[in-house]
Amino acid sequence: xxxxxxxxxxxxxxxxxxxxxxxxxxxxxxxxxxxxxxxxxxxxxxxxxxxxxxxxxxxxxxxxxxxxxxxxxxxxxxxxxxxxxxxxxxxxxxxxxxxxxxxxxxxxxxxxxxxxxxxxxxxxxxxxxxxxxxxxxxxxxxxxxxxxxxxxxxxxxxxxxxxxxxxxxxxxxxxxxxxxxxxxxxxxxxxxxxxxxxxxxxxxxxxxxxxxxxxxxxxxxxxxxxxxxxxxxxxxxxxxxxxxxxxxxxxxxxxxxxxxxxxxxxxxxxxxxxxxxxxxxxxxxxxxxxxxxxxxxxxxxxxxxxxxxxxxxxxxxxxxxxxxxxxxxxxxxxxxxxxxxxxxxxxxxxxxxxxxxxxxxxxxxxxxxxxxxxxxxxxxxxxxxxxxxxxxxxxxxxxxxxxxxxxxxxxxxxxxxxxxxxxxxxxxxxx
Length: 431
Fold this sequence. Notes:
Elements: H1 13-28, H2 38-43, H3 75-89, H4 94-111, H5 115-128, H6 135-147, H7 151-164, H8 169-181, H9 185-199, H10 201-212, H11 218-231, H12 237-253, H13 257-270, H14 275-287, H15 294-298, H16 305-317, H17 323-339, H18 346-355, H19 360-371, H20 377-390, H21 397-406, H22 413-430
């Protein structure tokens, strides 16, 4: 999302880094995090977790660690401090403001901490509120809203940016991302054409290659993305991780688990601490029946709610003696989200309700409400899994129709699809 003030996409390191942010969230939109709920984390340090409603007052003892904060020696933290000083020295510089806001967004995504999106929003706010806001400021605001799953508002900001600056490549790419996340693949295809026209052939190929994995063309998706992968050996680590992540997803669409794992590992080699990649790989491991590998993978990322949910799922799969405590902590975090008025973790809450609380009806309700907002493959999956568990196949009809229309290839969704269709046919035969 780094642009020059004149609006031209920087073809160097920064453009690759910011393009990663938009497209990687297309792969995993729905995943993110807010900070640890300290009271819940500390309460769980005892052998018995307290009962709901998960918000009893807690007074910490002197010297007790409630939460770890980023080290001042972290290169990303040092960079953010330097960018902060640059903005303080030139408070009216959009370039300086965007550089700091983008750094906050990147870091928040890396560590799974939504506070940094708030910091970015505060930095860019003066330009967004201006009588004639610059396109780049609007795109940055849209990216923040996308991160929060406020898709309608994000789309409005992007459309305003494009009206101001029709050749804003990042605006078109982020718009294509939103279209893919919400299942509007026809519009996403048109937007990818605009990405090619405004951000370059390579980025346009990545956009369209990613899109193909959702419309029954996973093999073609692999071919296109491999072409992009081979095109730039000197690309930054973040760009390589983005492409490797997209390749991993396409391999999963084909059921090629060894290839998918190879690409996940390559992506994590480039960005070993990226929250989205870690969570995606953790899901892969859970699906492959390897929960024992999840906890060490995510041990240093417990501040991320999405990462912590995977740890809890792994503990439950292992029937560990701490699984009830992990489940309680996740429940406390979701309660904290509700108290803050956040409702953009429907997919995650549905998985929690089904797999850890064993409440398929609640899981189905959460999944269907989430489906109204976003329609990525994982969003379809939580609906189908909950509908099977709740024995309510009719509730899944909108998703079944969507899968038939889009021809999505997915070896995990396909048996669920067949099972529900069989149940519907049986019910129809009884009438």
